[in-house]
Design a protein that fits this description.
The strands form three sheets. Strands 1-2-3 form a three-stranded antiparallel β-sheet. It has a three-stranded antiparallel β-sheet with strand order 4-5-8. It has a two-stranded antiparallel sheet with strand order 6-7. Helix 5 (about 90-105) packs antiparallel against helix 7. The relative contact order is 0.13. A hairpin with a 5-residue loop joins strand 1 (about 60-65) and strand 2. The chain has helices at about 5-15, 20-30, 35-50, 80-85, 90-105, 110-115, 125-135, 175-190, 200-215, 225-240, 255-260; strands at about 60-65, 70-80, 140-145, 150-155, 160-170, 245, 250-255, 265-275. The protein has about 280 residues and is α+β, with helices and mostly antiparallel strands. The protein is elongated, with a radius of gyration of 25 Å.
Amino acid sequence: MAITAQDVNKLRAMTGAGMMDCKKALTEANGDFEQAKDILRKQGQKIADKRSDNATSEGVVLASVSEDGTTGKLVALACETEPVAKVADFKALAQLVIGSAVKTNAGTKEDLLAATQEDGRSLQEHITDLMGKIGEKIDVVAYETLTAEKVASYIHSDNKKGVLVGLKNTNGTDVAGVGRDVAMQIVAMRPVAVDKDGVDSATVEREIEIGKEQARAEGKPEAMLEKIAQGKLNKFYKENTLLNQEFVKDSSVTIAQLLDKTSKGMTVTDFKRVAIGA
């Protein structure tokens, strides 16, 4: 049957796919709109399969904190190129992802992708459909949830890095300002843990061995290697654990001191940091 421009525009309005893709799908489906929509969806899956190994170094990170400030969600939706990250459809998909995370309270990324949307399709199907329309890989590369007495969030100016930070012993203090400062610290300084107790044993052992090898290379006596390595480990803790780091805005205080000055006993319980392309 003849495919008219009106038919093509109708399918385009229904799917958001390009005009040529709509015309090809309608032609293949002999004018059957439902079959044509299925063809377009399969096209998205083909692109997903073909580009599955492609790097996704662009995209957007979004955060949402509950009204009572006790739960935060953080998602990173990535794509291959910067122009795609700026198109309206990609931005709308990112909002769908964070909205679905909040609505379903999904426990894992897999649960989030499987979550049914208002049209009855899964979130993953929506992502695959947009891949068919845009022609490049799109993926939820990170999904984090954090619950605490108070949760603060921060999205960096490039929209590709984000943090959730959990605080306790806030004593009713408005933590918006200090929470943002601590979250910005995490983005900038990339701590490996809240404090030294949170550093995994493998990292500790590696740092001790590195310290010993460095001291040995400097000709230090074997009997002193352990003490020297412990000193280097303490320096590692100071530079790489959040509460022990110097505050980037004021190096005269550590993050632990900053929090305690804001509200006596306030501290960080946990944090989540995600980044696209870094």
